[in-house]
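Aim 2 progress. For Large ribosomal subunit protein bL19, the working sequence is reproduced below.
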Amino acid sequence: MNTQEIIRSIEAEQLKSNLPEIFVGDTVKVGVKIKEGEKYRVQPYEGVVIAKRNGGINETITVRRVFQGVGVERVFLIHSPRIDNIKILRRGKVRRAKLYYLRKRVGKATRIKQRFDRAL
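Predicted structure tokens for this construct:
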């Protein structure tokens, strides 16, 4: 076995199998494990997926939400052990692969139409 095959086999062990199919425009709730002292707790982070990158073990999603009037974006490594679960709340109907234009919008202009042809 060469080194690339070894790397692929190690990465295949780390991939999560219980993840839903996530698309750009979806509203998701990501459960993030946070360590406080010796214990871990799960903190939910809810927002709209504005970007997806890469594939395989390096797949990431960028989730945007508005918190106290300020837009906050977090990038999550989907297969990370820090991610406890990902739940899709609603599907969005968008025509772009990246929704960076939402950064310039405020209030009702940031709404995304709901898509009903894909299951949650």
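The beta strands are 27-36, 39-53, 60-67, 70-77, 83-90. This observation will guide construct design in the next reporting period.
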